[in-house]
Amino acid sequence: MKITNKINLLPWHPELHWSERKLTSINKIIIHQELGEASIESVNQYHIQANHISKEGCPHFCYHYGIRKDGEVVQANELAHICWHTKGENRVGIGIMLCGNFKGPDYNLGSDSPTEEQFTALEGLTTHLKYAFGFGDQHIFGHYHFGKPACPGYAAEKWIESKRNNLKDISVIDKIKKTIPEIQSRLKILGYYNGEIDGIMGIKTQSAIREFQKAHRLVPDGIPGTATWIKLIAVK
Predict the structure, then answer these.
(1) Which residues make Cβ contacts (< 8 Å) with residue 56, sequence separation at least 6?
(2) Within this chain, do residues 135 and 183 fall inside the same structural domain, yes or no?
């Protein structure tokens, strides 16, 4: 895998600069999709002008890396830069953007999936970063873990969850399926869930679990593991 360094080649905002962090503060890799069909250069130009993130514009491309559809990996910022890619996680996360417009929850337009070349590059880049920081696959997240359900889309979410390996054990899957109604009931009582008690682990249920996990300082992965269950039972 080759990483093309464009940190100083992509135009910067004329006045703004990223704040910086110690590399030891980094604890996760967060994967995004562009939600459009622009180039990395076009996204950078959008970011340094007034945009949906900031009316003053942003200092630079808002991710550390971008992956083009042909698989080229572009580094746009130093890892020490605190880029504005994930609310609440910018100081500790590395942001990776997949170029493209992919289907996902609440956003059903766009193509089906990132390209095979993008997935190959994503595998190489995340492996490189895991080795550099001593991370495991549990350090890989999607933007959907932090409140953006459509990002980075169904296909990339499947790739991420296969890496995170949350539901590898079939006995765990069966156990969760049997307890979904109780999970929904507890979340409803606690004010996190307003849907039907239907026993289906859908988007609403997963979103409610994530909100509960975030509120109680648990890993917001949408999976009711042991720590989440203990907290669900304990909270009044």
Answers:
(1) 16, 50
(2) no
Given a contact cutoff of 8 angstroms between Cβ atoms, the answer to whether 192 and 208 are in contact is yes
CA nearest neighbour of 6 among 96, 76, 99, 67: 76
Residue 55 is given by DSSP the state T
Domain finish residue from 116, 136, 164: 164
Are 124 and 176 contained in the same domain? no
Per-residue model confidence (pLDDT) at position 92? 95
* Of the residues 142, 164, 186, the one at which a domain ends: 164
Shared-domain flag, residues 209 and 111: no
The pTM assigned to this predicted structure is 0.72
Cα separation of 123 and 102, whole Å? 18
Segment 229-233 shows an average pLDDT of: 83
Beta-carbon contacts of 200 under 8 Å, excluding residues fewer than 6 positions away, are 180
The answer to whether residues 127 and 203 belong to one domain is no
pLDDT tens-digit readout, 62-119: 999 999 999 999 999 999 999 999 999 999 999 999 999 998 876 556 677 999 999 9
Give the structural domain span for 184. 170-234
Residue 45 has pLDDT above 90, yes or no: yes
Using CA atoms of 5, 7, 11, 13 in order, give the dihedral in degrees to the nearest 10: 160
The SS3 assignment for 75 reads strand
